[in-house]
What we know:
Helix 5 runs antiparallel to helix 6. 33% of the residues lie in helices and 24% in strands. The protein is globular. It starts with 8 loop residues before the first helix and ends in a 29-residue tail after the last strand. The chain is of the alpha+beta class.
Amino acid sequence: xxxxxxxxxxxxxxxxxxxxxxxxxxxxxxxxxxxxxxxxxxxxxxxxxxxxxxxxxxxxxxxxxxxxxxxxxxxxxxxxxxxxxxxxxxxxxxxxxxxxxxxxxxxxxxxxxxxxxxxxxxxxxxxxxxxxxxxxxxxxxxxxxxxxxxxxxxxxxxxxxxxxxxxxxxxxxxxxxxxxxxxxxxxxxxxxxxxxxxxxxxxxxxxxxxxxxxxxxxxxxxxxxxxxxxxxxxxxx
Length: 237
């Protein structure tokens, strides 16, 4: 009989990637964390789409891994007497082979859903699935985003909108930066797909937040091309 080979140590490390005692290369750790986040985000996007799911944040502490789910309707995420969040915790624990009590899920309400691109893309998706006209649905989202205090907004819908020939429709309002570091800081974007009878429509929502010195509603750092001219002092001529 052939001798059984010992399992490759990387298999063990990937399974216990949050156990800091395990020796693991930095490259493998970052890749494993990225795959974990991507799969978790995909699961929650499909499960909580109707409850205004807006993203997830993973915090690793020495005792446990905390997963914070951001949503517009947190009560629906929690479920009756917290039943749904317990079910999600159990699913995540079994799928990623966490130890009992090593993972905890929390629900956090989105402060301003009008400035959240994921929430608006999902909202537009359900409007189109409900049979609302594309132009009317997009203008509704655009108006709501701008009224919520955004500096600019762009909605792109592409696919077979009316005729058999596919085309793209773009709706814009306000001010939007498209290059440089401000796109990382100021722009929040989301892409969703709508499966309609005639084919698949693609939705892309981009929201540019306004500058906020407190950092609550928008980014703290100002745009690099903003120049502030101060009034001369009384002694200066």
